[in-house]
Task: inverse folding
């Protein structure tokens, strides 16, 4: 059914982006830091130069990649009721922000580096928050093993939530151990592949480069049936040309190149097209979340993903990303453009709880962002076009100059067609008016966080499985 969404590319534009992408993949191609991945690409028909570690990917391999990749996927969860299927009509499934390096302390408000116990608190809160459908490990566990952060944070997250988890790995060894952990919790490798309890974000190094450990992890995850999110983070004017058309083409090329590796490792491996691309702030050189360009790139990337039939993870949402303390720190235009990224043709999105351009995170911010997101996503609700909703006979009976307020049709449909918040929700919205004291919003959110942390626990994992997955992590401390 139709939903609120934005598209910027015509059919001819989509073909132009595709043709320019093929040109990029052919020349200059992509740099791949792994001989294993280069061999896969060469065997699949790519032209490989081992001296420069470059692969030139021909149109035939691109076509075969698109043919092989699945057009529907399942992201499972420890609680099967929380599993997610894509493609998804309506608003995207929403996740937290990911891998921040500091948080604001719940008691003192001070900024501090994060530990494993902090991540567990975040995951416990996320398990209870309705606006979140799945989770990134939102903060880094700095007390974890240095070369296996993704593995350690996956284990902590699994203990704290029954929702789907999205992680990352920086080596093939770490990826294999993450699969071992997932299989232990899921009840075996086949069960994990059928309903993956976790997926992974493996970012290319923009422009057009795949780091050795990350791309070898992609190969391991593909073999195990773990969905790989190929998140391009092109930045207009820095890691991509300043023009939007060229940036969109680089985003497209990085996704298709990653997909090629996955499909050559295992035909039919689940993949997700992704971009968190934007412009840079030309004054500071930092990524500019909430820029108008982010919304336009997300819209175009969503159209390209659907052109190939791929599930998509695009855009972001969060109202605290421009401050280092919880609250509403985006300006009105940034709030509008951030919300617009989620009106692209996307199945998944992320960003709740982040601070300071995603370097920080806050427990209170998760509550604040979730409250506001649940209003924003209403724009993507279904619009029905059937006989009942066209109401042709009703229009005829009321006629010109009449009104429809007291008709049974209005009474019957108003609660499903119109956004009518209940008393509690209306009071919550009122508290978020920008004219109000934001300190009171943060205080209320802090009290809600404390209540959840004192009363909520995710369904536990079997004790013998916990011991086994803890032993896997312990092996990385040596």
Result:
């Amino acid at each position: 059914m139709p939903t609120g969404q934005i598209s910027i590319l015509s059919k001819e534009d989509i073909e132009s982006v595709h043709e320019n992408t093929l040109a990029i993949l052919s020349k200059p191609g992509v740099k791949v830091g792994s001989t294993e991945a280069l061999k896969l690409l060469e065997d699949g028909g790519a032209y490989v130069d081992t001296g420069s570690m470059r692969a030139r990917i021909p149109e035939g391999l691109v076509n075969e990649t698109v043919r092989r990749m699945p057009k529907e996927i399942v992201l499972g969860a420890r609680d099967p009721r929380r599993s997610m299927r894509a493609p998804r009509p309506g608003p995207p499934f929403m996740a937290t922000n990911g891998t921040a390096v500091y948080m604001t302390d719940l008691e003192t408000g001070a900024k501090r580096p994060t530990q494993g116990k902090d991540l567990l608190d975040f995951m416990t809160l996320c398990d209870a928050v309705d606006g979140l459908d799945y989770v990134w490990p939102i903060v880094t566990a700095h007390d974890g093993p240095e070369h296996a952060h993704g593995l350690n944070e996956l284990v902590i997250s699994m203990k704290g939530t029954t929702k789907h988890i999205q992680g990352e790995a920086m080596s093939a060894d770490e990826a294999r151990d993450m699969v071992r952990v997932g299989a232990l919790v899921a009840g075996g490798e086949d069960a994990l592949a059928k309903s993956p309890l976790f997926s992974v974000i493996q970012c290319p190094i923009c422009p057009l480069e795949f780091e050795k450990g990350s791309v070898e992890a992609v190969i391991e995850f593909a073999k195990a049936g773990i969905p790989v999110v190929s998140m391009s983070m092109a930045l207009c004017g820095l890691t991509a040309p300043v023009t939007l058309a060229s940036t969109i083409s680089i985003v497209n090329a990085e996704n298709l190149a990653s997909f090629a590796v996955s499909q050559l490792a295992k035909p039919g491996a689940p993949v997700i097209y992704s971009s968190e691309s934007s412009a840079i702030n030309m004054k500071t050189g930092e990524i500019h979340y909430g820029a108008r360009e982010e919304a336009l790139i997300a819209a175009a990337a969503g159209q390209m993903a659907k052109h190939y039939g791929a599930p998509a993870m695009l855009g972001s949402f969060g109202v605290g990303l421009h401050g280092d303390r919880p609250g509403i720190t985006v300006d009105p235009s940034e709030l509008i453009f951030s919300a617009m990224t989620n009106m692209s043709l996307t199945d998944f999105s992320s960003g709740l709880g982040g601070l300071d351009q995603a370097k920080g995170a806050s427990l209170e911010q998760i509550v604040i962002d979730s409250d506001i997101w649940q209003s924003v996503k209403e724009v993507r609700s279904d619009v029905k076009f059937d006989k009942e909703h066209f109401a042709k006979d009703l229009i005829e009976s009321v006629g010109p100059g009449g009104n429809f307020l007291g008709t049974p049709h209005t009474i019957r449909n108003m609660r499903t067609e119109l956004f009518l918040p209940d008393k509690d929700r209306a009071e919550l919205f009122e508290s978020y008016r920008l004219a109000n004291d934001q300190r009171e919003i943060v205080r209320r959110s802090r009290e809600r966080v404390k209540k959840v942390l004192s009363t909520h626990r995710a369904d536990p994992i079997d004790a013998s499985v916990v011991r086994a997955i803890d032993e896997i992590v312990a092996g990385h401390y040596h």
In short: The longest helix spans residues 244-265.
